[in-house]
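Invent a record, attention on tokens:
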Amino acid sequence: MSREFPIGLTPPDWLVRNLRPQRAAPVNRPAVARAALAMTLPLAIGLAVGQPAYGVLASMGALSGVIGDTADAYRMRILNIAIPQLFGAVGVTLGSAVYGLGWPAVATVTGVALVSGMISTIGAVASVSGLLLLLNCVVGAGLPMPGPWWLAPLLMTGGGLLVLLLALLAWPLRSGVPERSAVAAAYRAVADLLAACGSDVPDAYEDARHTVTQSLNQSYDLILARRTRHHGRSPELTRLVAQLNAVTPVVEAAPAAHQAGRPLPREVPEAVLHLARAVETGFTGPIDLRLPAPDSETSRAVDHALRHAAEVVAAPDVEPGGAGATDDRLGRPAGLRTRAARATRDVALSAASWRYGLRLALCIGLAQVLVSTVPVARSYWVALTITFVLKPDFGSVFSRALLRALGTVAGLVVAAAVLSQVPRGWWDVPVMLVLAPLIPALTPRGYGYQTAAITPVILLLSDTLNHQGAALLLPRLADSLIGCGIALVAGYLLWPESWHTRVGDKLADAVADTARYADAAFGPDIDPAARARMRRRLYRDLSVVRTEFQRALTEPPPTGRRAAAWWPLVVAVERIVDATTAARVRVKHGAEPPSGQEVAQVTLQLDELAEGLRDTEVLYPVRTDLTGPPDSVLQPLRQEIAAARAIASPTA
């Protein structure tokens, strides 16, 4: 007879959230194949020419390339892999120059950690570049590099560029395919959103809308990033931007359709799926949409938006001066030089950049002092662990420390079998052929899984350089635990902003922006494109807020408990934005516009809610005073604001 666990033995929610594997897309088979080939081939060549250490260095470089091989678009792969490899070459050069020098090594690695942390705040590519700069510097300072000083950076960079070369092999045959696939995926996400409108399934619409926001963000980022690097005007990219713009009115009509409370006809989401297939295949012929006749303001909005999208998708060319070509709904990115100068200025002057750089430098400095003064076999694993764990842009520091420790233990079990049972030499090649593909296969499941996959690979490669065999295992476990401990104490507990975050600040900013959007949605002098950009930025910001709160939920109390209390308010603010968009769509298609007094009252209530959230770390009673004509288009919005303010009140 089964027995329930006592209440005290039930694992806490934050621990369950940390250990739960992430929902991952199907395994990226090309990435798996590239990892197997790129990491095994250098090892085999090194053994064939009698220089296994050279092959190991190239395989280490390939490992960093495999970790960065995450982009779908070919031009983005160049940025994600090539640029970090250059920083990695600088890192290993600096590290190997101070190998065995004691305090100069401590000072050099600590200085590199400061720079690495500061540039990591710029963006995704800069973050990976800073990571690789520090990782390779730590490896160079902790392991003796074979050959002259220039050989190690050359081999490691060559290994990473081998991954890039393999990733670009299909570019001549599939140029533009990833971009079209991304836009088509956005259309399919919109189809799912329309299918969820009026659904009785709890959270079905909210989840679908969040997926649409993420898909549109990824598509715009992908296409506009390529567009800014493209010399001259590319008809293909202009057409893809126009197709993304064309689906925006459909997304704007969805809240009004959901607000109506009944599901849309089956033909509506099927029409969007039909458009998605046309986008993905590049079809430019006539598109016949079999849509039911509209019979209300909402159905007219959906019908009008879908037919406009069909016209844009079917058009073989987009006029350079047309709205679709020039209006990207997010604002065109600044030029590369302008963005580089802005990023450099922000890094040098930003308090957040200096804080993160100092946190990372403090932890790395402590680790280097430790391994230089205490008999830890001059281990570089402590600093490596800190580098991986102390990446706030990769997730919660606390969660990553926990998952790093658990993943290392799991990886050491595999490494124990490999190092104790497989002789060094040619047997390493088939072993690497099996282990390397696990890295891209398991990484999407979560950081713990990625650590478990990387650990045996790194140990196998490093054993070729230091020849310690199974004796590596327990010291490496101790090193990882020491690194996690330093990161938790010096990089987490000593910085109150890490564990005592005011989780309501970003949400308050989003509420204030929602007030500005509500005011602009019904203003007569607002340019439609500017209004659309405002809505897209607001949804993007809310997506970031949702992600930040989900990260906070994995923190131990009090941060995790506070985030859980605020979570319903995040959903409520998203519903307020939806209600505002729905009201705007109804006005555009025939409903009576609200009076200026109604709009002013709504914005006043939102501003008061934002100020209340900004002034406290806990939820507290908030006055709700919203009245107006019951038949006004703003009545649903008033109800959502009242619900949000009720959520902001503590339960009795």
